[in-house]
Specification:
The structure holds 2 protein chains of 2 kinds.
Chain A lengths: L3 E4 L2 E4 L5 E7 L7 E6 L6 E5 L3 E2 L7 E6 L2 E6 L8 E7 L5 E2 L3 E5 L1
Parallel strand pairs in A: 2-11
Antiparallel strand pairs in A: 1-3, 3-8, 4-5, 4-9, 5-6, 7-8, 9-10, 9-11
Chain B lengths: L2 E5 L3 E2 L5 E8 L8 E8 L5 E7 L5 E3 L7 E6 L4 E6 L8 E11 L2 E7 L3 E5 L2
The chains are: A mainly beta, B mainly beta.
Chain lengths: ~110, ~120
């Protein structure tokens, strides 16, 4: 199994802050990584695929980077509507998700 | 716009079989090009992929659940279903159905159903 480790598990930031979440794979997964946003009581929503490609309709303040085992998800300027839990997900070998990062407004 | 909706009992007794159905609207399962997955989320925890089915009926399951999982498809009703046998409290979770898109080597889950909470309890 490929394990995905996200950090931090929770994060508090102010509106307008730059926010960064990291995701580490237990083995090389190339760029086979997606990022999802899950708001309370809702289903996850795809934000980024192939580690760095923005899904259509997703605001450009969201971005992703990385390859191999280390990946980064960034919100360039945090907005109130970005309060959610964010998950990374690998698809190199079946599918596994990170444990999530809960983002709160300070 | 494709939408998915889960349905089924919200309460299942231990040792029994959990059965859920996902109804797809706005698109046809039979059109191909997509896989149809079940994913679950334990209360307050992360996400676990359960398995997928293609419209032809071919399936692939998470090895950790494979012995207890059956996913089937009914193209005439535009539905696919999940059966999980011999359930325990550890199977209590929100169950989501989702469409898996595939282009070349890229895979993604979108859209998802709203999710349905299944509690295993006597």
């Amino acid at each position: 199994d490929i394990q995905m480790t996200q950090s931090p598990s929770s994060l508090s930031a102010s509106v307008g802050d730059r926010v960064t979440i990291t995701c580490q794979a237990s083995q090389d997964i190339s760029n086979y990584l997606n990022w999802y946003q899950q708001k309370p009581g809702k289903a996850p929503k795809l934000l980024i695929y192939d580690a760095s490609n923005l899904e259509t309709g997703v605001p450009s303040r969201f971005s992703g980077s990385g390859s191999g085992t280390d990946f980064t998800f960034t919100i360039s300027s945090l907005q109130p509507e970005d309060i959610a839990t964010y998950y990374c997900q690998q698809y190199d070998n079946l599918y596994t998700f990170g444990q999530g990062t809960k983002l709160e407004i300070k | 716009q494709v939408q998915l909706q889960e349905s089924g009992p919200g309460l299942v007794k231990p040792s029994q079989t959990l059965s859920l159905t996902c109804t797809v609207s706005g698109g046809s399962i039979s059109s191909g090009g997509y896989y149809w997955s079940w994913i679950r989320q334990h209360p307050g925890k992360g996400l676990e992929w359960i398995g997928y089915i293609y419209y032809s009926g071919s399936t692939y399951y998470n090895p950790s659940l494979k012995s207890r999982v059956t996913i089937s498809v009914d193209t005439s009703k535009n539905q696919f279903s999940l059966k999980l046998s011999s359930v325990t409290a550890a199977d209590t979770a929100v169950y989501y159905c989702a469409r898996e898109g595939v282009t070349g080597t890229t895979h993604w889950f979108d859209p998802w159903g709203q999710g349905t909470l299944v509690t295993v309890s006597s």
